[in-house]
Amino acid sequence: MSTSTPVSSELVTPPPPLPPAVNINALDRLLSPLTTEQLLRQVILDAFPGRVVVTTSFGAESAVLLDLIAGIDPATPVVFLDTGYLFAQTLTYRDSLVRHLGLTDVRTVAPAPDDLAREDPQGDLHKHDPNRCCRLRKEIPLENALAGFDVWISGRKRFHGGDRGALPRIEVDGRYLKINPLAEWSEAAIARAFAEASLPPHPLVEHGFSSIGCFPCTVPSGNGGYSRAGRWPGSDKIECGIHTTKTTQNPS
Ligand code: SF4
Fold it and tell me: Is the CB of 228 under 6 A from ligand 1?
């Protein structure tokens, strides 16, 4: 089931502290020999049951991680940020992929209407302050949506380049233990997973989009080269901030 929830700029639920027993180095050693599927199974079912959330953009590569999640527990909470500026094809793809995979807890999260009315009444904030626009439309809604969880699974990969080139499989992000199960996957491995599982592609991929975000800030990136080259074209911005602005307080 997919639900849509606008959220306020204030945290709805104060986040609880991470369990003090989590030792990132010990956990890394424990999980490092595991395959991607084994890692996800261990995290979702065994180590942190009921405390794990997945974020996805329903973009060009999202189906691979979501397919793995669905095979382990289709009721795993999945958070999707609808900024109000997504391509119609992304929303259609979300609905068809959710049905195809049988995911039952996809939470579509929207920015707070009051925040947009106050800070972006003309809807052009992305043109003169994209960082603030991403803050309002992505970071704040995400912080609220993640507040009830301890472990955050993301679909980023090293081959995306930039800061992602050194992405670990396991890291601490603010108060969250963050798992990047596909960090080591190559572009070819993603393509193989699509083929082997007969996963439907995002409809914009065939039009040259290799990374798909909001329509005012995304252009086709063409074939080859930096896979996120089509994001924020003509600007030095390369990340929206949800993975670079550490969330709330650090665990002790
Ligand atoms: S990607 Fe562009 S339109 Fe989307 S939230 Fe960021 S600045 Fe705004």
Answer: no
The whole-angstrom distance between residue 4's C-alpha and the CA centroid of its chain comes to 16
The one-letter amino acid at 79: V
Determine what percent of the chain falls in helix, strand and coil, rounding each to the nearest 5: 40, 15, 50
pLDDT 10s digits, 45-66: 998 999 999 999 999 999 999 9
Cα(183)–Cα(56) distance, integer angstroms: 15
- Nearest CA owner, ligand 1 atom 5: 134
CA of 126 to the centre of ligand 1 (A): 6
Nearest alpha carbon to residue 82 among 66, 94, 72: 94
Work out the number of other CB atoms within 10 angstroms of the CB of residue 215: 16
How far away, in angstroms, is 83 Cα from ligand 1 center?
Answer: 7
pTM of the predicted protein model: 0.87
**In the CATH hierarchy, which fold is given to the domain comprising 2-217?**
Rossmann fold (3.40.50)
Residue of 86, 134, 140, 215 to test ligand 1 pocket, by largest number of atoms within 8 Å of CB: 134
> What pLDDT digit, counting tens, does each position of 10-24 carry?
444 444 445 545 678
pLDDT digits (tens, 9 = 90+) for 128-143: 999 999 999 999 999 9
3-state secondary structure of 101: helix
Give buried/exposed letters for 219-238 (b at 16+ CB in 10 A, else e): ebbeeeebbbbbbbeeeeeb
